Structures
1.
Amino acid sequence: MSANNASDLPKVSDRLAYNAMRNWKEKLIEAILLGAAAISVLTTLGIVYVLVSESYSFFQNVSIIDFLTDTQWTPLFDDAHFGIMVLISGTLVSSGVALLLAIPMGTIIAIYLSEFANPKVREMAKPILELLGGIPTIVFGYFALLVVTPILQFFLPSLPGFSLLSAGIVMGVMIVPYIASLSEDAMRAVPMSMREGAYAMGSTKLYTAIHVVVPAAISGLAASYILGISRAVGETMILAVAAGMQPNLTWNPMEPAATITSFIVQVALGDLPHGSIGYQTIFAAGLTLLMITLLFNILGQWLRAKYRENY
Amino acid sequence: MKPLTTEQIRAVIAKGKFRDNLFKAVGVFCLAFALLVIVALIADMLIKGSERFTLDFFLNFASRRATQAGILSAWVGSLLVMLVTALAAVPLGVAAGLYLEEYAKRNWITNIIEINITNLAAVPSIVYGLLALGIFVYQFGFGQSILSAGLTLALLILPIIIVATREAIRAIPAMIREGSMAVGATRWQTCRYHIIPYAMPGILTGVIIGLARAIGETAPIITIGALTFIAFLPPVPFSEIDGGATAGMFDWVMSPFTVMPIQIFNWTSRPDPAFEINAAAAGFVLMAMVLSMNAVAIYLRYKMRKNIKW
């Protein structure tokens, strides 16, 4: 600064001081905002830390081989067995039932909304699906146990009061909105020119939808199915209420069985001392659950990368 | 190949149209089925629970006798937990969304944060419960309190609020920022006086949807060990508690509690059919809360789409 007039100098430095302070304030705010964004990373680290550290203590007492191969799951009995396959079977069977319902239904709704429905119907249908997706899972659990199971028993008299079947069906209904909504977004992103090309060749709407739009949107569809699988595998309350909490190594959906998630609920409802083997068991079960969802997510990302179409 | 006759072409077209219409019918049927499930669910709970919709039901504590049991501690607990969740999740979520849209440079830190948020949305809610059990309940020593539950649900809905905030901010055109900065506003002043106010309706929609999700969550709260039988309310600030002492401003935060979904779970899993009625009535109340929150969010978004034209 080469000021001629000495009386101007303090003014300039005042302004500079104000600017410097303002810059400091900006930096500070940016740091605070970054801190807020970093919470998500901390959450992930926290999840991994808690699950791995408690599971580590668990695997000090139980060998991994037993954990993966034992066919009994009786962690709270005197004669304790820790065969996670028992819980995994319940999880896979109920998820399978749910997806057998949700994938076809969700895809059909998505194709209908994106290719056939007029805009008015679409504007009406989207909020309805959203409301269905927003229903608390405990309410779905109530519905599965006290409404769907009696209806199913009317057709299948041998069905027990708790079953993977009725829980799975209701879970499927719960997942339909997620799959329908994401699949529809993917199909609407397919450029109009592709459909027009197909129509110009004389294709019907259905033929165009199945042979042009669906293949073009397949990576988005796969992503929606993967999300559906994650939801099904991680769903807790419907199973805890309607599938019974009896550990049962079965592939038959007509039987009651515990899943990974409903086992965690069952243990948490009791009063297990912090640090006991029973307490550690739920973290080992939680780690298994996270691994399964992670596995499906990696599979989904691989599928998307492999079949991604760029227009 | 022989050319088709007119009749044959007509037959092909008719077949195609028939299949189109058949698929349309199947599509409408699937949608109607979804609607039917919602209607059946609400009607079933309304009809079964109708005899419990008295003032007493809302003002009584849980009880061993089904006819005298009420949901007072459950709905008060739900409201208090939602208060903690909103106070924690809204500032954090909006700040994180603002950072990612307005401040973040394209570098590996930003990438990690973004991948993280996407993946967190796919983590099963019960895993958040395990996180809270290990960290909030035991490491931080918050115990099985309203605070633990509120923070757990806040982490759970954080991705929803962040994504909604980012979408709302992204919809604001660049000229708003340029105009603000051209008259000498700093980045924060631009955010404070322009970006946040204009994004507010979108943020609000995300917050409501997030809270509607949180109020129905059961699994993570059971995992941290919320009690199912609570026959008292958390201490009111500055009121008198046992022994003549006065409750502090924030004593309620550390109080044991129960919430609506846990009360429903408890009643649903009892063999006595009298409790079924209670479960239906409480389920209807919870559904009314969740659906009205969702309806407000859908309406807000609808209004927003109509009003804002940049």
2.
Amino acid sequence: MEDQTLLPHLFRTEYRNIVSVLCYLFGIQHIEIAEDLVSDTFLSATELWSLQGVPDNPRAWLYAVAKNKTKNYLKRNSLFENRLSKEITYSADKSEEMEIDLSEKNIADSQLAMIFTICNPCNAPEAQIALALNLLCGFGGQEIADAFLTNKEVIYKRINRAKEKLKEANIKIEQPTVAEINDRLETVLKTLYLLFSEGYYSTSQDTPLRKDLCSEAMRLTILLIENKATNKPAANALLALMCFHASRFEARTNEKGEAILYEDQDQTLWNKELIETGKAYLNRASTGDELTKYHLEAGIAYWHTQKEDTAEKWENILSLYNSLLILEYSPIAALNRTFALSKAHGKKVAILEAEKLKLTDNPFYFSLLGNLYSELDNEKAIQHFETALRLTNSAGDKLTLTKNIQRLKEAKAVNNKPA
Amino acid sequence: MNEFLIAIHRDLKSKDASPSPEQMQASIKPFQEWIGKLIAEDRLVSPYRRWDGVGRVVKKSAVTDGPYAEIKESLGGLFVVRAKDYDEAVEIAKGCPILEWGATVEVRMALVSA
């Protein structure tokens, strides 16, 4: 790896590892100290490596320096005596022998404990996601701001407030007990799901950044699956869902970062390996008697990996959307159900039901109606697309809607031409 | 908008009234489709839930195992929907696919508290 890319790469992967281990050791109250120590380690690396060259094993170097800096800090500071010595069985004068365990196992354990802390519902979902990106994924303020389409200051404020909340609530950084896991895993999965969606559906046109968000969400979900206690069917279902969606990543945007609709995607760009991996996780999710929305959404996403429109495909998708609605109503599920209905039972049946949905402030409602009326009543279809265009804020959706309107108007012009 | 109780009554007791496993299987999908449609239209007042077919029957003198079956039919499903009036609520109830299997659906309007 080139020297210029090595350090940012190590920062992305190792910053979070060392921060997690130190936080796990110090507790949430001293999170800034952990971050300072690790930042300081990377600062030393930047200075020394540019003068003396990159060491043979850069990661080992970082770990050794981080350990030394931590030990020195503890020696100089009362933190160790006042707080840590009560919890760790070492005494102050033995601080030099204190083990800062940067083994692969302890890094994984620490990250897992951090996931559960960060996804604590005392913070709002968007704060949890910002915090996760910062502490668990090693994203800088600017990158997070780009993903959320906001500025760095907003993100810094959000992250700092979220940390304060965790401290006030005195949330412990610890492995959840077996009894706690089911309860707490639900909020963790929700945050990981949102993190993935942030990357997958973000309006940011920065494709590499969006891909990073998705792969980070997948990495953290894998972390849950690799731990026996958290390897639950719901986690496997969530990962299956992510695999199926991510399989289309290369096919869903053009070189300008504009969205390519499902129907128009080049199927050869779909990642077959990810689809197969997704299937394996979906199989593993099909144990036990718990049926979560991740199971249902993964089922729907699975059927979307079959490009060909078959009756079987849309009957299955329709029935999965019905079950999803029974589990939890959401306008988007209601709209998607109606789209599946049109594919399974025809546009006319779907229009009758769509018009009862009355989601009149939702642009997707009108673009659905536009799609359903296309070819049946192009005049009405154009009206609905135009309403959708007025309601949407997304540049990508505006582009698609404008194209649809243009296509229908052109069709009209051709039809009206005198013979 | 008013709220209506939709109560599905069906014969849960006598043997010949129990659907075969195939019939059960065949009735799940239309039922799910019907409920899915009502939820999509945001008609359900509270989240949909299933009720077991067992229950207890409480009287002053005793508590007996359910379901309540002094009449032939017991409560098989229960939920509350939003509808403008009885006509609309009855339209909704008519869509219940369990009617095909001999169920009766009772519709009752909730009174607005004074």
